[in-house]
Amino acid sequence: MCEIGKSACDGRLREGERGGRNYDTNSNQQHRKQSEGSTKKWSLIQTGSSNKDEKMTSSYNFSTSAPDDVILETIDTKGVITLNRPKVLNSLNLSMIRKIHPQLTAWENEPLTTMVIIKGAGDKAFCAGGDIRAVTEAGKVGDRLSQDFFKEEYMLNNKIGTYEIPYVALIDGITMGGGVGLSVHGMFRVATERTLFAMPETAIGLFPDVGGGYFLPRLGGKLGVYLALSGFRLKGRDVLKAGVATHFVQSDKLADLEKSLLAMENARAHDIGEILDKYQSMSTDIPDTDFVLEPHIEEIDRLFNGDTVEEIVHNLKMEGSEWAKKQLDTLSKMSPTSMKITLRQILEAETMTLQDVLVMEYRLSQHCVEDHDFYEGVRALLITIDLNRAQDEECEGYMKPLYCYECQTSSDDPNYCSDPFNATMLAQNVSICEGHCVKWVRQPRPGEMTYVRTCSTRLNLKLMINIVCIEESRPSSGLLCFCKEPRCNSSAKMQLSVLAFICAFIVILREKT
Fold first, then answer.
1. What integer pLDDT is reported at residue 20 of this predicted model?
2. Residues with catalytic function
3. Which of the residues 90, 178, 480, 490 could staple to 120 if both were Cys, CB 3.0 to 4.6 A apart?
4. Total number of domains constituting the chain
5. How far apart are alpha carbons 225 and 238 in whole angstroms?
6. Segments of the chain with pLDDT less than 70
7. Same domain membership, residue 258 and residue 135
8. Whole-angstrom Cα distance, residue 157 to residue 178?
9. Is 171 in the same domain as 182?
10. DSSP secondary structure string, 477-512?
């Protein structure tokens, strides 16, 4: 067994004070101040259990954009954002991100703006996640969308987390993945009896991103680790009791709550909190029960207290209880690589700022979209794979800086250009390497060969285009080719497939010789 916490994938807990089981307004204020400066199982575990849990689904929905996918309104001195894609559970796409982010900036720069409210259209979802189908399709051909979506989404998450104006998220209905990023970093998060919260990314070869590395370890104990690895779903009041939400209000009172908020003349954070408290106290029609995980909190804190996934699995096996067996059965359905990455992400992020966490998560996202597990996970949700495939060296590779073939150097080289997504970029909304690095990609991993470093050909417009071809270890991928010239435009990219064919032909000739 590989031991992430004892080798290259070191993910040991760092010392430092941690709050209780509540990711609250204080933690948001803290990182604001810092900013100013198929049905098969993954064969990870052989449990012998015959119980079949509900098939876990991705937090991402697959859909396209539309002109009215998000509604932005200014009502008196308040801004209102409505995610307007109810037919696809208000899933988040790049078009919506590019509308919301500048509007938040405009409201923040307007001295009269006193509050921003964000909600989802319909009664089924606040936001069920991001548009990953487009990302997977783009990633297969080396398109920039796999960079742009995550980069701009994380920049929006950072804007919300460092927002100076009171931000109220009405998370009524399904709230997963990208929807969590739009809400959990805000000052106020209002759950209802219809709220369904989860971070199930490990089921599709990803990790709990959108700042998950920041808020999950701050839920207290090992609850965040448990939620991240298992994708456990919290519902209704449990979202509040876990510390994800700050308030609970019945869904039939949301319309009145919104009217009360919009009617406020001087919407200071303290006054907003009092109104939310008032509506929470009025929400008595929904029975209040004990936290769904309360009977297992001690087990969670003890059994999920490990530096490696193997250690956690061992703890669960040794425990032997019915609950522990159920957790083993759940974990057996997840990507082993994703679980290892996720655990390290959470352990390392315990003492990091939100900005630094998002920088780390961008790097992880770019490695993930080049990985076999991600495409197979999106395609079939669950596939058979062995833990031995998730080696320490592979996990370590996810944490390495990205490689710019335009620079011909690693992205952490201070002599040329820094990482394509960093704290400065988050704050200034600019790319440090703009004009230099068209495609940031991971370095070839063990078992892969870079057959052709640069392969040049002249196009119709006599434009010299250099591309890089990497033969992937995954059987279905063949050659991945990336345009490496900053002059590449859409016309040139249309002929990328031709260039890929040329590179493939060169590879065949080399193999014959």
1. 38
2. 130, 178, 201, 209
3. 90
4. 4
5. 17
6. 1-65, 132-146, 370-513
7. yes
8. 9
9. yes
10. T-EEEEE--TT--HHHHHTHHHHHHHHHHHHHHHHH
